[in-house]
């Protein structure tokens, strides 16, 4: 019982000091991951762990990293990205060259840079507003540096590796051409308001960690942020049941189009 109270107090303190509401995440998964981190760092209780986090920025970033599961790679699930490249982006560009694209919960940047490569190949990169957001400042710093181990590039087509990266020993660096076009900023999806008028929103492999209530709120916010006819691209375990309640309709597997066109 005391252990439960300790974790509930931790959730309360985190929300008070950071606006991050851990109660909106699936508790069993979240508690297991954070317990592992707390014990690894040598803290007997969550309250003592919280106090240490508030004094130690590196520990706080590690907490954020564990909480948000920063597992990302370029062209994750390549057949889905091939659909973005061969079908959806060309369809959008025929209607409008000045697209507005958002990579939500972008982690360390692989996803927005994948989008940037696709847009560059179609000669549209400099016409597009490409936003990338995440709650984790540490992840955003890595995204801005744009340095990656080769394992992150394993699904990138070879021609793109040659064209959009340069290598220095073990690291691959994203070209300046792509880096300068992505605007990275901090954002809490569950709390912050969203911009509107997006042609494409990509939010993959994040929503799965939220409660059903939080998912519902998030899908409503995404739908409002899309322009009519805009697309929401979700992860391979995040199929939206009854998308019509959000004014969305299936466009393909894991792609949802906002109604109204």
Automatic annotation (TrEMBL):
SUPFAM superfamilies: Chemotaxis receptor methyltransferase CheR, N-terminal domain, S-adenosyl-L-methionine-dependent methyltransferases. InterPro entries: Bact_Chemotaxis_MeTrfase (IPR050903), CheR_C (IPR022642), CheR_MeTrfase (IPR000780), CheR_N (IPR022641), SAM-dependent_MTases_sf (IPR029063). Keywords: Methyltransferase, S-adenosyl-L-methionine, Transferase. CDD domains: AdoMet_MTases (cd02440). The keyword Amino-acid biosynthesis does not apply. Residues 1-261 form the CheR-type methyltransferase domain. Pfam families: CheR, CheR_N. The keyword Cytoplasm does not apply. This is Protein-glutamate O-methyltransferase CheR. It comes from Paenibacillus chondroitinus.
């Amino acid at each position: 019982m005391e252990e439960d109270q300790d974790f509930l107090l931790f959730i309360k303190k985190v929300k008070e000091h950071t606006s991050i509401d851990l109660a909106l995440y699936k508790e069993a998964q979240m508690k297991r991951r954070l317990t592992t981190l707390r014990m690894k760092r040598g803290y007997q209780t969550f309250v003592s762990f919280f106090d240490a986090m508030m004094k130690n920025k590196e520990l706080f970033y590690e907490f954020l990293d564990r909480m948000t599961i920063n597992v990302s790679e370029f062209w994750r699930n390549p057949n889905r990205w091939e659909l973005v490249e061969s079908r959806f982006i060309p369809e959008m560009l025929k209607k409008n060259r000045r697209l507005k694209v958002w990579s939500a919960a972008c982690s360390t940047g692989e996803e927005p840079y994948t989008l940037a490569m696709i847009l560059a190949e179609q000669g549209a990169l400099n016409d597009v507003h490409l936003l990338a957001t995440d709650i984790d400042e540490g992840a955003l710093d890595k995204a801005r540096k744009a340095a990656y181990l080769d394992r992150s590039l394993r699904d990138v087509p070879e021609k793109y590796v040659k064209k959009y990266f340069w290598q220095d020993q073990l690291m691959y660096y994203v070209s300046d051409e792509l880096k300068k076009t992505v605007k990275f900023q901090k954002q809490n999806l569950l709390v912050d308001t969203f911009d509107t008028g997006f042609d494409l929103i990509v939010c993959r492999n994040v929503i799965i960690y939220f409660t059903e209530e939080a998912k519902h709120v998030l899908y409503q916010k995404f739908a409002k942020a899309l322009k009519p006819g805009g697309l929401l691209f979700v992860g391979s375990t995040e199929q939206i049941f009854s998308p019509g309640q959000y004014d969305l309709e299936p466009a393909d597997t894991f792609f949802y189009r906002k109604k109204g066109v």
